[in-house]
Amino acid sequence: MPYYTYILHSTSIQRYYCGFSQDPHRRLREHNDPNYTLSKTTKRFPGPWKLVWTEKHLTASEAMKQEKQIKKRGIGRFLQDSNKMPQR
């Protein structure tokens, strides 16, 4: 099964979150679910969170490597550089 690197955007505070998963749509539901406690970062900041970008990978290590690269660059800067900024 493939893995995905994904980026979420909070429309209420204009903040981004980057992660990786085999099912980014399930993870989006978990990030937005107030009863799900394993998504610490997105629980500290108000949502709703929207999925704004994904990229498919063959392995978890590839997805994790890209997640680290995006976070190191800065999520907003990464989206700006790749012309993927969400509409506000």
Summarize the structure.
The chain has a single domain, classed as GIY-YIG endonuclease (3-Layer(aba) Sandwich), CATH 3.40.1440. The protein is built from four helices and three strands, in the order ββααβαα. The mean pLDDT is 90.
Describe this structure in words.
- It is a single chain.
- The chain is of the alpha+beta class and 88 residues long.
- It has one domain: GIY-YIG endonuclease (3-Layer(aba) Sandwich).
- The chain is built from four helices and three strands.
- The chain has helices spanning 24-32, 40-44, 60-73, 75-81; strands at residues 3-10, 15-21, 49-57.
- A three-stranded antiparallel beta sheet has the order 2-1-3.
- The protein is globular and about 30 Å long.
- The chain starts with a strand and ends in a 7-residue tail after the last helix.
- The model has no long low-confidence stretch (mean pLDDT 90).
